[in-house]
């Protein structure tokens, strides 16, 4: 039996705002933090039920809004193997979050228990954490009320990064088994990462200090701990670490700022010398963007696509050196945001698949390869080694010392990489390992291929749900007719490509465009755009498509994107 009286008692203190609709989107619920009290309370109960459904396995709950502005917050659920909540439960989450009253909520819970055949006598176990957002403490107490209402055995992981929470979930659920993922503590996580990193860079030249822009978020805490574990092996300099000053989180810094604005966070401008590398994390440290200044002091971005190219090529090389290339196939997963040049570069070497935005889609597609490398252009990604690949690596008998070395490197990579989800710190160490092995600076890495000029624009519309896509989000099916207009526009640009999709984490429609040159026939543009010559046409195309989107959505002409 559900403890209906207890749930009712707590639920009355966390009533749903009457006029709001909540949706479990790309990365869970995400909206203004001060509207999320009832949602988070209900998620506490849902997480407990999910655990009961899975025979008492531990479920993760992360309270964060990642790259979103500071006033936003959100919550995502983590399944027992450390991956995102199974898609069919997203609908349950949305349904529970929108029940209009306590009675409606109790009814929805009872129906859920019945339809998903939950055995209520099973234990409910949850581990939870939050990022540094000011709305976090109040939302955590709503979550804890949810746990109390259902009688969940809850473990508080405190303020930590999203990928550390994913690590903990997997470590807890595999503890004592032959698939043990590591000690179920932050210490276990940092020890695992730093030990494998040190083995992988043993004998290599010590890299120059790396500047890390922590986005004024929880990555600053994790970065400081990582420094202790890495010791002398790799000097890190943390910047944008003010986690308690209101208004600073992700503000003019962080991975999303760098990717969208394609420039340095202003606070780093005076710190970087030509040739020096740096990287940015996002608000919960699951995304990573690299960059450097070239010899003329020009900003050069090394995004998720560049990370995928670097890492995939390295793993392919090691697999070959280990003598396993006929048995282990490496594949790459991208989204429509992947730069066209990266897709071309990778597809000439490896199988490449395109899926809709969202780590959950990339992760599942990557599981189909022996080694699946997935990165979103925004810097969110990881590498998955299938169970049979990991077994093969452990049992393979190398026939030469060179094979043995490559095999050991691969085994150490399986330890260094957080295979549960994108992890900025683990990915950063991975990048540094590859750069050390290849003796690459940012320049050589960047020259693997040349990015097509591109631009991402956000358009604020009345109702983003009116925008529906197909073909891995590359084409719009609704509003009707808009895709044809976009196609007409794109045809006027050489190397032109553009797509439009509703964001699943912010209340905007996103427009992406690539373009090299504009066709002569198109004439002048009504847009005056102050950017470097190279990017001019991509920016122009992006803003023209954004204009179409804006007109279609019936926006106020004075706020039309320009
Ligand atoms: C989340 C997802 C990512 C996605 C991003 C943007 O990232 O985990 O997979 O790329 O949102 O999604 P959308 O374009 O739908 O807003 P994060 O780092 O914010 O959790």
From TrEMBL:
Catalysed reactions, as listed in the record: N-acetyl-alpha-D-glucosamine 1-phosphate = N-acetyl-D-glucosamine 6-phosphate
Claim: Transmembrane helix is one of the keywords in the record: no
EC number: 5.4.2.3
GO molecular function: magnesium ion binding; phosphoacetylglucosamine mutase activity
Active site as annotated: 66
Residues where substrate binds: 376-378, 501-505, 510
GO biological process, one term: carbohydrate metabolic process
Top-rank lineage group of the source organism: Eukaryota
Binding positions (Mg(2+)): 66, 282, 284, 286
Pathway annotation from the record: Nucleotide-sugar biosynthesis; UDP-N-acetyl-alpha-D-glucosamine biosynthesis; N-acetyl-alpha-D-glucosamine 1-phosphate from alpha-D-glucosamine 6-phosphate (route I): step 2/2
Any Pfam family: AMG1_II
Ranges where the Phosphoacetylglucosamine mutase AMG1 domain occurs: 209-288, 303-440
Requisite cofactors: Mg(2+)
Record keywords: Carbohydrate metabolism, Cell wall biogenesis/degradation, Isomerase, Magnesium, Metal-binding, Phosphoprotein
Domain Alpha-D-phosphohexomutase alpha/beta/alpha: residue ranges: 59-88, 105-176
Statement: the UniProt record of this protein carries the keyword Cytoplasm: no
InterPro entries: A-D-PHexomutase_a/b/a-I, A-D-PHexomutase_a/b/a-I/II/III, A-D-PHexomutase_C, A-D-PHexomutase_C_sf, A-D-PHexomutase_CS, AMG1_II, AMG1_III, PAGM
The record's free-text note on cofactor binding: Binds 1 Mg(2+) ion per subunit.
Biological function: Catalyzes the conversion of GlcNAc-6-P into GlcNAc-1-P during the synthesis of uridine diphosphate/UDP-GlcNAc, which is a biosynthetic precursor of chitin and also supplies the amino sugars for N-linked oligosaccharides of glycoproteins.
PANTHER family tied to this protein: PHOSPHOACETYLGLUCOSAMINE MUTASE
Stated family: Belongs to the phosphohexose mutase family.
Protein name (Swiss-Prot/TrEMBL): Phosphoacetylglucosamine mutase
Protein species of origin: Hebeloma cylindrosporum
